[in-house]
Design a protein that fits this description.
chaperone, SdhE_FAD_assembly_factor, FAD assembly factor SdhE, DNA polymerase, domain 1
């Protein structure tokens, strides 16, 4: 289980300095992270360790992560902002 301090740290790590990533990741931490199952929370932490250019390509749907854990997390985040 992630503590409030852990979540503050994750929110800080979600600020990537690239607007396209910031508008996806920061609100996700604020609004959805706590409701995720622990496995998905761990996947999100793993996602934050990735390079910005990879994250950008995945979230702009120009590429798909080879790692199924990362692909799942990208889909969860995209589904949240693109319902339907």
């Amino acid at each position: 289980m992630y503590s409030d301090e852990d979540i503050r740290r994750l929110k800080w790590q979600s600020r990537r300095g690239m607007l396209e990533l910031d508008v996806l990741l920061v609100p996700f931490v604020d609004e959805a992270f706590r409701q995720l199952p622990l496995d998905d929370q761990d996947r999100f932490v793993k996602l934050l360790a990735c390079e910005d250019q990879d994250l950008f390509a995945w979230f702009m749907q120009r590429a798909v992560p080879e790692d199924p854990d990362l692909a799942r997390m990208v889909k969860i985040i995209l589904d949240r902002v693109q319902p339907g």
